[in-house]
Amino acid sequence: MEQTKVTSNPSPLGGSRWGASDYKKGQPRWCPGCGDHFFLANFHKALAEIGTAPENIAVISGIGCSSRLPHYMATYGMNTIHGRAAAIATGCKVTNPKLDVWQVSGDGDGLAIGGNHFIHANRRNIDLNMILLNNRIYGLTKGQYSPTSPRGFVSKSSPYGTVEDPFRPAELCFGARGHFFARAVATDAPGTIEVLKAAHAHKGASVTEILQNCVIFNNGTHESVYTPAGRKKNAIYVRHGERLVFGENDEFGLVQEGFGLKIVEIGKDGYTLEDILIHDAHCEDNTLQLKLALMGDGDGFPIALGVIRDVPAPTYDEAVEAQLAEVSAQKKYHSFAELLETNDIWEVK
User: Fold this and answer.
1) What pLDDT, on a 0 to 100 scale, did the predictor assign at position 84?
2) Where does the chain show beta strands of DSSP type E?
3) Alpha-carbon distance 118 to 21, whole Å?
């Protein structure tokens, strides 16, 4: 799997010489209307815009509906075991640091049995592009509640409603000292492509949560933001350096009130555009970023979409590579044969 990473493949006419079709393989086998179809199409388009050659990409997944995705990629790929996508992706990146490694997991695969690996991949800051496809349900195993299902959710494994609170992926990422978190909706092609490109550009562990629908077992779970009209009313697109405004005509904004956030209508009650907070995705202090990431879902605030946190930090894989080079330079041997010759040698005839 040794490859020379080509991060850009320019066309003589400008842009990437790769098209979305160059990353496609096979016929996707998901239910009609599944959010995986939308994400896959957007992923192909994002890769074409990024311009990395298909042979310099590895897509690693675990088990679940979303984890079939590597089968539909004309890249290196591996459909691993349940919850271990981050572990396999880590090994792939550390041993092949020039590869672009994309890890694809569902909310069950990635946050239940795979939760520990998710935490440590973020803590170590391994240069992985981690995609979390969140439909709040176990789809492949036919409709059990998942770690992101809301309290009271009725499913085959919770017929009277769950009695536990869910994980919030952003909170888990930030708590593990994650340096990149973004969110998009599967049906929002421009928004998804934008955050995938930003995730790739970030050096270190990037987590991108994709809100998607399971038409069979949890239909409508992200209904409030699944259409353009819904996003106009119920979402806020956050972009570094821009005002935190939202609404059908950008008539609302976010201001700080004490240690929290407050929604105000611009032009009323004395609030002007200059009063609205400016998003800083690069701020080391993640206090405001986390507040943005946790908004929405019934609290009266819009759901934040876009790159919420993007802070540079040393990466695990680069540190390991540098350490190996440093230690190797100090050794008297650089191969197994040389190692054998460093000690006493007996020749048996």
Assistant:
1) 95
2) 57-61, 76-79, 100-106, 129-134, 180-185, 206-211, 235-238, 245-246, 252-257, 260-265, 303-310
3) 31
139: left (phi > 0), else alpha (psi -120 to 50), else beta? Answer: alpha
Tell which residue, 103, 112, 153, has the closest CA to residue 132.
103
CA pair distance 98, 125, nearest whole angstrom: 16
- Asked whether the predicted pLDDT for residue 174 surpasses 70, the reply is yes
Answer for the pair 149, 134: CB distance below 8 angstroms, yes or no. Answer: no
Q: Are strands 57-61 and 76-79 parallel, antiparallel or unpaired?
A: parallel
pTM, whole model, 2 decimals?
0.91
Q: What tens digit of pLDDT does each residue of 176-195 get?
A: 999 999 999 999 999 999 99
Q: How far apart are the C-alpha atoms of 163 and 153, rounded to whole Å?
A: 8
Give the other-Cβ count within 10 Å of 285's Cβ. Answer: 9
What b/e string do you get for 242-268 counting C-beta neighbours within 10 Å, with b at 16 or more?
Answer: ebbbbeeeeebbbeeeeeebebbebee
252-257 and 260-265 strand pairing: antiparallel
Burial class (CB in 10 A: 0-12, 13-18, 19+), 140: middle
- As assigned by CATH, the class of the 20-226 domain is alpha beta
Closest CA to 144 of 157, 163, 161: 157
- The Cα–Cα gap between 150 and 283 comes to 30
How do residues 239-295 score in pLDDT, each as one tens digit?
Answer: 999 999 999 999 999 999 999 999 999 999 999 999 999 999 999 999 999 999 999
Rounded to 10°, the helix 35-50/189-201 angle is 50
